[in-house]
Design a protein that fits this description.
Blueprint (H helix, E strand, L loop, with lengths): L3 E6 L5 E8 L2 E6 L2 E5 L18 E4 L9 H7 L5 E4 L10 E2 L5 E4 L2 E7 L18 E7 L2 E5 L7 H4 L6 E5 L8 H11 L3 E5 L2 E2 L2 E2 L4 H5 L5 E2 L6
Parallel strand pairs: 4-5, 5-6, 6-7, 11-12, 12-13, 13-16
Antiparallel strand pairs: 1-2, 2-3, 3-4, 8-9, 9-10, 10-11, 14-15
């Protein structure tokens, strides 16, 4: 199975390759380092056994569309490191990251961002006390933000120096189109990738974002249902 890839040039002129697997599963290759964010395999028909082994795996929270223990096992080698939110440690072996923690891994900066809902009727999906995470990766001087499952809370809106943002957009679990626009106008990335756009409740139409964010950032729509 072939997956869409984007090749980016980081601020230090190194090459970053993004692979879009499905939903919230993204791969990053940089200088021979392989990083996976929320790799989920069988649920989305992704065979990770034919993908490069992971140096680093980042898990945002333990919901089944973000945490797949089998996929982690398949991608792991002897020295693979797994960073994850605290609730994930019940299901996998990992190094637990609390919110607002900075790490460095093989030249990649990793910063954990709180991910939680604030809309009253949606608090049960991602409550703040679960300490779900998003991650900002500094790769070659370029900051790439993977939001995980969150709404436009104050921790997200206060982020600085984000160059590329992956923002989750699907109701009732994550953000609305309007909330995504609010985040983009607050954190000012140059590129937006809407992701996590589908669920059992249906697919979110993200095409209005192109017009709504014209003049603010480039919107790149990939197959991330």
């Amino acid at each position: 199975m072939l997956f869409f890839k984007d090749s980016l040039i980081a601020k230090d002129n190194s090459k970053i390759i993004l692979t879009f697997y499905a939903h919230a599963s993204v791969g990053i290759e940089w200088k021979g380092i392989h990083i996976y964010v929320d790799p989920v395999g069988e649920k989305y028909g992704v065979d990770f056994s034919i993908e490069p082994k992971a140096d680093l795996i980042l898990i945002t929270h333990p919901h089944k569309d973000h945490l797949d223990a089998k996929a982690i096992e398949v991608l792991s080698k002897a020295d693979t490191v797994v960073y994850a939110s605290k609730e994930c440690s019940r299901l996998i072996l990992c190094e637990i990251l609390a919110p607002h923690v900075s790490k460095e891994f093989m030249g990649v900066g990793v910063y954990s961002v709180p991910a939680y809902n604030t809309t009253e009727e949606h608090l049960q999906y991602h409550p703040i006390h679960d300490e779900g995470l998003g991650y900002v990766l500094n790769i070659g001087g370029t900051n790439i933000y993977f939001a995980g499952d969150t709404e436009d809370n104050e921790d997200v809106l206060s982020l600085k120096n984000v160059d590329i943002a992956f923002l989750s957009i699907n109701q009732p679990y994550t953000m609305t189109v309007e909330q995504v626009v609010n985040v983009v106008k607050a954190i000012c990335p140059s590129v937006l990738y809407p992701y996590h756009t589908g669920s059992q409740m249906g697919e979110t139409d993200v095409t209005p974002l192109v017009a709504m964010l014209k003049g603010f950032c480039e919107v790149r729509i990939r197959n991330m249902k």
